[in-house]
Amino acid sequence: MDAEFEQEFINPAPMHGVQENVAPTPAAVTWTDITEFQVYAPEGGTTLYANGKQQLKVRVSIRVKYKGLATVELDEQTLSTLTLVDSGTGTPLINDRFNPGDPIGWRYALERNETFKPLPYQGPIVAGVEGTKVYSRDFYVSTTASTSILLSASVTRSDGTIFYSEAIKAHGRVTLNSTPPAVYLPTQFQLALHGKAQYESKNIFKVEVYQLRLIVEQHQVDILKVVSVYPLVFLRKSSHPDYLGYYTAAYLKGEEQPYGWLPKFEMPHVQAKYHDSPGAVTFLMSYAKKGGDSQIRTEHDAWTLELLDMYGNTHIVKIKATEDSPPLLKLSRY
């Protein structure tokens, strides 16, 4: 680091300049200069949904030396002070996940939430710092904001002096972009009849299997969770001479959703695991026998499900049954 660059690094713009604690604790300074201080997206993508759930990986890499001499090791205490900073305000990001009611903004966690996936990315990836005595820390950023953010990093030396990466000309800052949570058209959801389940009992004549998928640009966006279902079981009466009526329940990953107390209904839950398809919701439509214990005293016009996808976005899907006997399940466009 030449003298001019070194002077610029430890004396950047006033808002984000080196800061010293009013009463620093006595400690031996183990390093004096920063030779590399980068903030970048190691997986390439810099765009994420503003749903507070999806995360984007940001890596901070640093290398230090002592009084212009050889590169030296960075102690664990100093490494733990590495954090992300909003370059526009100079405010460090909050280390926490979003909860309902939290203010709109940007946050990070130090562990990836494997539940949600980053957006697919194809393009160049910024190479990080390489070589000996390079120290890195990964941050998993999420947002509920509608605007982008320019991120830098800070590190606090043992004597209380704070250094900012934005003083570095190359990769000292990175811009992350938010995009509104995805809203898909009913035509992008596909509901199809997949045939019959091998199930018959005293109360059930047969069971038919449907599956619901979300297909976007010829690729499946996995459905991770059925957040809510209303009504819990979809009911239709029957004019067919052999059937009392039809009732349908939703399953994901081969497991039934919480239905509560359902008197006079035999549920073919055991069949769900044999008809599970990753990323899809399975529906089992039971044909209730006349003379059995089932009671279908009412009908439902529509069935509403709230779904959570692999990127952390929620969607409302409405399903109706045709007037045929037996009926067919169809996606509602309204």
Verbal overview:
This protein has 334 residues and is mainly β. The protein is built from two helices and 23 strands. Strands 13, 14, 15, 17, 18, 19 and 20 form a seven-stranded antiparallel sheet that branches. A hairpin with a 5-residue loop joins strand 3 and strand 4 (71-72).
Q: What is the SS-derived class?
A: mainly beta
State the separation between the terminal residues, measured CA to CA.
64 Å
Q: Return residue spans where pLDDT drops below 50 for at least 5 consecutive residues.
A: 1-26
Helix content: under 10%
Order of helices and strands: HEEEEHEEEEEEEEEEEEEEEEEEE
Quantity of strands, as a count: 23
* Largest beta-sheet characterization: 7 strands, antiparallel
> How much beta, percentage-wise?
35-45%
Compute the number of helices.
2
Shape designation: elongated
Mean pLDDT over the residues: 87
Q: Specify Rg, calculated over alpha carbons.
A: 28 Å
Compact summary:
The protein is mostly beta strands.
